[in-house]
Automatic annotation (TrEMBL):
It comes from Rhizobium leguminosarum. The keyword NAD does not apply. This is DDE domain family protein. One of its GO terms (biological process) is DNA recombination. InterPro entries: DDE_dom, IS_Transposase, Transpos_IS6. It comes from the Bacteria.
Length: 180
Protein backbone atom coordinates (compact mmCIF):
# COMPACT_ATOMS: atom_id res chain seq x y z
CA UNK A 1 0.00 0.00 0.00
CA UNK A 2 2.74 2.48 0.90
CA UNK A 3 4.69 1.49 -2.24
CA UNK A 4 1.70 2.30 -4.46
CA UNK A 5 1.19 5.67 -2.81
CA UNK A 6 4.87 6.59 -2.91
CA UNK A 7 5.18 5.61 -6.59
CA UNK A 8 3.64 8.94 -7.69
CA UNK A 9 6.48 10.85 -6.01
CA UNK A 10 9.27 9.23 -7.99
CA UNK A 11 11.42 11.74 -9.84
CA UNK A 12 13.07 11.47 -13.24
CA UNK A 13 16.52 10.05 -12.69
CA UNK A 14 19.83 10.94 -14.27
CA UNK A 15 19.20 8.90 -17.43
CA UNK A 16 21.41 5.94 -16.52
CA UNK A 17 20.03 2.88 -14.75
CA UNK A 18 21.66 -0.30 -13.55
CA UNK A 19 19.51 -3.41 -13.57
CA UNK A 20 20.23 -6.70 -11.86
CA UNK A 21 18.44 -9.66 -10.37
CA UNK A 22 19.05 -11.41 -7.08
CA UNK A 23 17.63 -14.52 -5.47
CA UNK A 24 14.98 -14.78 -2.75
CA UNK A 25 13.91 -18.06 -1.15
CA UNK A 26 10.16 -18.74 -1.11
CA UNK A 27 8.86 -22.09 0.18
CA UNK A 28 12.32 -23.57 -0.22
CA UNK A 29 12.66 -22.53 -3.89
CA UNK A 30 14.73 -19.70 -5.28
CA UNK A 31 12.77 -16.88 -6.94
CA UNK A 32 14.10 -13.78 -8.65
CA UNK A 33 14.00 -10.17 -7.53
CA UNK A 34 14.69 -7.75 -10.40
CA UNK A 35 15.89 -4.35 -9.20
CA UNK A 36 17.00 -1.11 -10.83
CA UNK A 37 18.91 1.84 -9.39
CA UNK A 38 20.24 4.96 -11.07
CA UNK A 39 23.95 5.72 -11.23
CA UNK A 40 23.74 7.70 -7.98
CA UNK A 41 22.31 4.71 -6.11
CA UNK A 42 18.70 5.90 -5.92
CA UNK A 43 16.17 3.06 -6.28
CA UNK A 44 14.16 3.12 -9.52
CA UNK A 45 11.94 0.02 -9.34
CA UNK A 46 11.73 -3.70 -8.57
CA UNK A 47 9.82 -6.86 -9.54
CA UNK A 48 9.59 -10.24 -7.84
CA UNK A 49 9.26 -13.06 -10.37
CA UNK A 50 8.97 -16.84 -10.18
CA UNK A 51 11.11 -17.25 -13.30
CA UNK A 52 14.20 -15.66 -14.75
CA UNK A 53 13.26 -15.50 -18.40
CA UNK A 54 12.48 -13.08 -21.22
CA UNK A 55 8.86 -12.59 -20.13
CA UNK A 56 9.95 -11.65 -16.60
CA UNK A 57 12.47 -9.13 -17.96
CA UNK A 58 9.80 -7.61 -20.26
CA UNK A 59 7.35 -7.45 -17.34
CA UNK A 60 9.99 -5.64 -15.28
CA UNK A 61 10.47 -2.98 -17.98
CA UNK A 62 6.68 -2.59 -18.40
CA UNK A 63 6.18 -2.15 -14.66
CA UNK A 64 9.02 0.33 -14.40
CA UNK A 65 8.18 2.48 -17.43
CA UNK A 66 4.48 2.23 -18.33
CA UNK A 67 3.17 4.97 -16.02
CA UNK A 68 6.18 7.29 -16.01
CA UNK A 69 7.67 8.08 -19.43
CA UNK A 70 10.03 10.57 -17.76
CA UNK A 71 11.73 7.63 -16.07
CA UNK A 72 12.78 6.16 -19.43
CA UNK A 73 16.58 5.82 -19.34
CA UNK A 74 18.90 6.49 -22.26
CA UNK A 75 21.67 4.26 -20.82
CA UNK A 76 21.04 0.82 -19.34
CA UNK A 77 23.71 -1.23 -17.62
CA UNK A 78 23.08 -4.92 -16.96
CA UNK A 79 25.04 -8.01 -16.06
CA UNK A 80 25.56 -10.74 -18.63
CA UNK A 81 22.00 -12.14 -18.44
CA UNK A 82 20.93 -13.05 -21.97
CA UNK A 83 17.31 -11.94 -21.44
CA UNK A 84 17.99 -8.22 -21.14
CA UNK A 85 18.97 -7.36 -24.76
CA UNK A 86 15.74 -8.91 -26.09
CA UNK A 87 13.67 -7.26 -23.35
CA UNK A 88 15.23 -3.87 -24.12
CA UNK A 89 14.48 -4.33 -27.83
CA UNK A 90 10.86 -5.29 -27.06
CA UNK A 91 10.49 -2.26 -24.76
CA UNK A 92 11.73 0.05 -27.53
CA UNK A 93 9.22 -1.50 -29.94
CA UNK A 94 6.43 -1.01 -27.38
CA UNK A 95 7.39 2.67 -27.00
CA UNK A 96 8.42 2.31 -23.36
CA UNK A 97 12.08 3.15 -23.99
CA UNK A 98 13.64 5.84 -26.13
CA UNK A 99 14.83 4.63 -29.53
CA UNK A 100 18.34 3.16 -29.40
CA UNK A 101 19.17 3.27 -25.69
CA UNK A 102 22.82 2.50 -24.94
CA UNK A 103 23.13 -0.94 -23.34
CA UNK A 104 26.29 -1.67 -21.35
CA UNK A 105 27.18 -5.15 -20.19
CA UNK A 106 29.96 -4.61 -17.66
CA UNK A 107 30.66 -6.13 -14.29
CA UNK A 108 32.41 -3.15 -12.68
CA UNK A 109 29.44 -0.81 -13.28
CA UNK A 110 27.16 -3.37 -11.61
CA UNK A 111 28.96 -3.20 -8.27
CA UNK A 112 26.67 -0.40 -7.08
CA UNK A 113 23.49 -2.42 -7.48
CA UNK A 114 25.13 -5.66 -6.31
CA UNK A 115 26.05 -3.97 -3.04
CA UNK A 116 22.60 -2.32 -2.87
CA UNK A 117 20.86 -5.73 -2.77
CA UNK A 118 21.87 -6.11 0.87
CA UNK A 119 19.56 -3.22 1.84
CA UNK A 120 16.62 -5.42 0.89
CA UNK A 121 18.02 -8.85 1.67
CA UNK A 122 19.25 -8.04 5.19
CA UNK A 123 15.62 -7.70 6.31
CA UNK A 124 14.42 -10.99 4.80
CA UNK A 125 13.57 -13.95 7.02
CA UNK A 126 16.78 -15.85 7.77
CA UNK A 127 15.31 -19.32 8.26
CA UNK A 128 13.87 -20.83 5.11
CA UNK A 129 12.69 -17.63 3.48
CA UNK A 130 9.04 -16.75 2.89
CA UNK A 131 6.14 -19.19 3.01
CA UNK A 132 4.15 -17.69 0.12
CA UNK A 133 4.84 -15.66 -3.00
CA UNK A 134 2.23 -13.01 -2.08
CA UNK A 135 3.74 -12.50 1.36
CA UNK A 136 7.19 -12.13 -0.19
CA UNK A 137 5.93 -9.66 -2.81
CA UNK A 138 4.16 -7.48 -0.25
CA UNK A 139 7.02 -7.56 2.24
CA UNK A 140 9.62 -6.69 -0.39
CA UNK A 141 7.35 -3.90 -1.69
CA UNK A 142 7.38 -2.47 1.84
CA UNK A 143 11.17 -2.74 2.08
CA UNK A 144 11.61 -1.06 -1.29
CA UNK A 145 9.14 1.69 -0.38
CA UNK A 146 11.08 2.42 2.78
CA UNK A 147 14.27 2.60 0.70
CA UNK A 148 12.58 5.07 -1.65
CA UNK A 149 11.48 7.11 1.33
CA UNK A 150 14.86 6.96 3.06
CA UNK A 151 16.84 7.88 -0.06
CA UNK A 152 14.54 10.78 -0.90
CA UNK A 153 13.42 9.89 -4.43
CA UNK A 154 16.47 11.59 -5.88
CA UNK A 155 15.72 14.99 -4.32
CA UNK A 156 18.77 17.20 -4.16
CA UNK A 157 19.64 18.79 -0.87
CA UNK A 158 18.74 17.63 2.61
CA UNK A 159 16.04 15.00 3.00
CA UNK A 160 15.46 14.86 6.72
CA UNK A 161 13.44 12.54 8.94
CA UNK A 162 11.02 15.44 9.37
CA UNK A 163 10.52 15.62 5.58
CA UNK A 164 9.91 11.88 5.48
CA UNK A 165 7.34 12.14 8.30
CA UNK A 166 5.58 14.99 6.48
CA UNK A 167 5.30 12.93 3.31
CA UNK A 168 3.95 9.83 5.09
CA UNK A 169 1.46 11.99 7.01
CA UNK A 170 0.25 13.51 3.73
CA UNK A 171 0.00 10.11 2.02
CA UNK A 172 -2.17 8.58 4.73
CA UNK A 173 -4.00 11.66 6.00
CA UNK A 174 -2.29 11.54 9.39
CA UNK A 175 -1.68 14.36 11.80
CA UNK A 176 1.96 15.34 12.03
CA UNK A 177 3.35 14.07 15.34
CA UNK A 178 6.63 15.97 15.67
CA UNK A 179 5.84 19.63 15.09
CA UNK A 180 9.24 21.28 15.17
Amino acid sequence: MIEKRLRQFRRPHCGTVRIDETYVKIRGKWRYLYRAIDKHGNPVDFLLSAKRDLEAAKRFFRKTLKDQPLLSPNKICTDGANTFPSAIKASVEDGLLQPDPVHYVTKHLQQGIESDHFRVKKNLPKIGGFQSFNTARRTIAGFEAMLWLRKGFGFSGGWTINDQNDLVARLFGLIKVNKT
